[in-house]
Design a protein that fits this description.
Layout: H1 5-29, H2 42-55, H3 63-82, H4 86-100, H5 102-109, H6 120-131, H7 136-154, H8 170-173
Length: about 170
């Protein structure tokens, strides 16, 4: 089946309008930017799907240790975001909110079901597509997720052993 150029443009405009409407609805449903970042519900599910894709084999493989590591990284991401200015916290909240929103999750991340059921390969493909996307906005969103997760993981001294990092020089630590 061939699609005409006109039909392709109509579909593109309709998609853009749908995303804009979804974004507007999401913004209206959220409180003003005076509140602090909250990592809950859908945002937590997004983070728990993205962390293993970002960290890969650096995470422990044993289920209990893996669950504890995911919880610890999530908490450190939350603490890191809370240390940012309110406007930046709002942007991060919007990113997680957008990814948690069903239609946006399907269109932007290619994840059909919820994040809890997301296949790790789907999550890795979504992250790779954002990392190399032609839209700079998606590249920046990927970098934000990357920096928050990788920074939260390697800020914990217990993760240094897995990469052979002995820690900061004692002369610098004093």
């Amino acid at each position: 089946m061939q699609i005409s150029r006109r039909s392709f443009l109509k579909i593109g405009v309709a998609g853009a309008c749908t995303l804009a409407a979804g974004g507007a609805i999401y913004r209206l449903a959220q409180a003003p930017a005076t509140h602090r970042f909250a990592l809950e519900g859908g945002a937590q599910a997004v983070l728990h799907a993205v962390i293993p894709a970002m960290l890969g084999p650096a995470l422990p493989s044993e289920p209990e240790a893996r669950a504890a590591a995911l919880a610890a990284v999530s908490q450190r991401v939350r603490d890191t975001v809370l240390a940012l200015p309110l406007s930046t916290q709002k942007e991060v909240q919007d990113l997680f909110g957008l990814l948690a929103l069903g239609p946006a999750r399907r269109l932007l991340a290619g994840v059909a079901g919820g994040w809890d059921q997301a296949d790790p390969r789907q999550v890795e493909a979504f992250l790779q597509s954002w990392r190399t996307h032609s839209l700079q906005t998606l590249q920046i969103a990927y970098q934000a997720l990357h920096d928050l997760i990788i920074g939260a993981w390697y800020a914990d001294p217990s993760s240094w052993e897995r990469i052979g990092y002995p820690g900061p020089l004692k002369e610098l630590a004093a």
